[in-house]
Amino acid sequence: MTTRNQLDRLSLNQKTTNSWTLPESVDGCLRAGLQSIGVWREPLAEFGVEAGARLLADSGLRVSSLCRGGFITGEGEAASQAAIAENTAAIKEAAAVGADCLVLVVGGLPAGSRDLPAARGRVAKRLAQLVPIARDHGVQLALEPMHPIYTADRGVLATLGEALDLAEPFAPEEVGVVVDTFHVWWDPQLEAQIARAAGRIASFQVCDWITPLPADTLLARGMMGDGHIDFARALALVDAAGYTGDIEVEIFNADLWAADPDEVVALMKQRYLDCVIGAANDGAVAASDVSGALVGATS
Amino acid sequence: MTTRNQLDRLSLNQKTTNSWTLPESVDGCLRAGLQSIGVWREPLAEFGVEAGARLLADSGLRVSSLCRGGFITGEGEAASQAAIAENTAAIKEAAAVGADCLVLVVGGLPAGSRDLPAARGRVAKRLAQLVPIARDHGVQLALEPMHPIYTADRGVLATLGEALDLAEPFAPEEVGVVVDTFHVWWDPQLEAQIARAAGRIASFQVCDWITPLPADTLLARGMMGDGHIDFARALALVDAAGYTGDIEVEIFNADLWAADPDEVVALMKQRYLDCVIGAANDGAVAASDVSGALVGATS
């Protein structure tokens, strides 16, 4: 029997139920008995930042993250200024909604460029410019290493180790890291780097690596239990590193987006219990066919 | 003007011209003025190992690699014995054709398993069993780290650093590593790990990372110059590590496979000069539209 307790740390990232507006997401969380939500800037802007901040505060939900800032790899002074301005706006929004952190996806190679070390250098430089702004607003920046499938076009920050190297010059409450199982599960350094991340884990996100990979790599993520990731191991590692925050489920997947969001949330809760929390208890992963059935019924 | 000299190190991996039989590949290399070929076991078996060995010896071509052994992650005694037997056969074939090395793709997670550390442990254990067999046949085993996009279903060995960790207990002439730009280009540790690989680089392979990634990830590789990889940097790094061997072009790509193989070889030569060797000289990458034109004309 599911107790309220077991779902205490579960957070619904808005991307998992992409068709919902911000109020629909808040209502959906409350209906499902969740205590936390990961908010995206686009639906927040659509509803209005001030109104959204009020809605979230009134709901009693925690805001486990605001997604997302970043995209700071552009070349030249104009790109730099635009990136700083955009991220300053994101920092203010994170402060307004009381988000635990602002997730930063750093951006890929600029069009036509093959200079990966230079792009990484710009990330370090602009991060240093953003830290004092975030500090002034009491917002923790959270560097998200992205799976190397996205290095070229989305995130030149490819490993947790690299994220920690970037974060190290700053205080943990200024710059943390995101541990997203989809992005880091393959890393032979995972155990060592999560241990090294102790005190800096700003967000722990879960979703699965499924094969064959869907054709659109941006929508390639799977519901926990549908793929190859050992969530029990990942949770044990962040636990050992002292992380006690929310566990956010963020899934970009066209089939799930086409399904009824309430059913997606129900499935997410079940899989969270079976594959993330349950598996942490007894080592067994329940690989039921519920997602397949859900997708089959709705797509 | 192209001198024969500039193409001295260029090797055609058979996968780049996948429709060619072994004799067609040998003839194609000779017609194109190449001195080296990367051989695959399947077309070699089709022609006959003994006859193939004679054909290759008579051609005067070097065999820069035999692809491939590996797939040593299976669970249980039967899987272990089958893997050792299969790799012993591959080692004998590598010796028969005088290949510089036998490339090992270690294999992914067994069906239904999510235990990545255990799979990696089996790779280490079976590698230790294969080394004496390879030594007896005078064959160097070459561990190929695979892009993390393949960790689940093809190669749990995900980084050059991990490959070097596995190789270190053995002599360099027993266990080397493959540096394939497609698999390693994204790695923030690339410079440090290639330097560490000095004396152990058994094979240097080039092909490009293209976006958007083709739907079939196994055929996602691009002709040099069509994607995001800085080949000049990669070549400079392996040069600095003392690598003087062949530079093998291995491209899995459905469009190129549908094109006339002689035209693919001609394009490969041009791009090798422009993007690999040429770029190493002057820092400029020629991003012509030749592949697009070729593919457009034939598909």
Automatic annotation (TrEMBL), chains A, B:
It holds the Pfam family AP_endonuc_2. It comes from Kineosphaera limosa NBRC 100340. Gene3D superfamilies: Divalent-metal-dependent TIM barrel enzymes. Residues 31-260 form the Xylose isomerase-like TIM barrel domain. This is Xylose isomerase-like TIM barrel domain-containing protein. Keywords: Carbohydrate metabolism. It comes from the Bacteria. InterPro entries: IolE/XylAMocC-like, Xyl_isomerase-like_sf, Xyl_isomerase-like_TIM-brl.
